[in-house]
Design a protein that fits this description.
It comes from Oryza barthii. The protein is α+β, with helices and mostly antiparallel strands. The chain is built from four helices and four strands; from the N terminus they run H-H-E-E-H-E-E-H. 17% of the residues are buried.
C-alpha cells in the first residue's frame, strides 16, 4: 500500500507532467509519450533560436550597409554618413565630392576605424544652388567608388556624365 508521502510525490509528478503536457501542446496520455513530446518541443525551440539568430545576423549585416542623410540648413547642409566598413581614401573621396558640388565644409566629425561615420556641416557656394538629393547621390557615388576600387578614390567608372577625356 502507498504511503501518504508517496501519494503526494506521485500526485506532484502527475501535476508536473500535466503542466509539461499543456506547455508542449501534447495530446499524449502516457508519461513516456509526454516526455518524448517535450523533448521534441525542446528541439523545435532550439531550431527556432538558431533561425532567429540567423535573422539577427542578417539584420546586423543590413545595418552595415551605407546610410546617407542630408538635411538642408539655410544655405548649407547637414550630412550624416554611415558605412558598415571603412576603406582607405573614403573620407578624401567624400570631401572631393563636396568640393565638386561647390560645398565648403564648415565643421566635420569623422570616425574611420572598422566602420565609417561622418557628420559634416557644409555651406554651398551662393552662386550655385545644390539640392539635397544631389548631395546624397554624390556621397553614395563616392562610397561606391571607394569600396568598389579597393580604396582608389579616383575611380569614376560609374559616372556617366564625366567629360574628362
Amino acid at each position: 500500500m502507498m504511503s501518504s508521502r508517496e501519494r503526494k510525490k506521485a500526485a506532484a509528478l502527475q501535476e508536473k507532467l500535466q503542466i509539461l503536457r499543456s506547455i508542449t501542446h501534447s495530446h499524449a496520455l502516457s508519461n513516456t509519450s509526454i516526455i518524448m513530446d517535450a523533448s521534441k518541443y525542446i528541439k523545435e525551440l532550439k531550431q527556432k533560436v538558431v533561425r532567429l539568430n540567423q535573422e539577427i545576423a542578417c539584420a546586423q549585416d543590413a545595418l552595415r550597409q551605407n546610410r546617407v542623410t542630408v538635411e538642408t540648413l539655410g544655405h548649407g547642409f547637414l550630412v550624416n554618413v554611415f558605412s558598415g566598413k571603412s576603406c582607405p581614401g573614403l573620407l578624401v573621396s567624400i570631401l572631393e565630392a563636396f568640393d565638386e558640388l561647390g560645398l565648403s565644409v564648415l565643421e566635420a566629425t569623422a570616425s574611420c576605424t572598422d566602420t565609417f561615420r561622418l557628420e559634416a556641416i557644409g555651406s554651398e557656394n551662393l552662386m550655385e544652388k545644390v539640392d539635397e538629393h544631389v548631395v546624397k547621390q554624390a556621397v553614395l557615388r563616392a562610397i561606391r567608388s571607394c569600396s568598389g576600387s579597393g580604396g582608389d578614390h579616383h575611380d569614376d567608372d560609374d559616372d556617366d556624365d564625366d567629360d574628362d577625356e
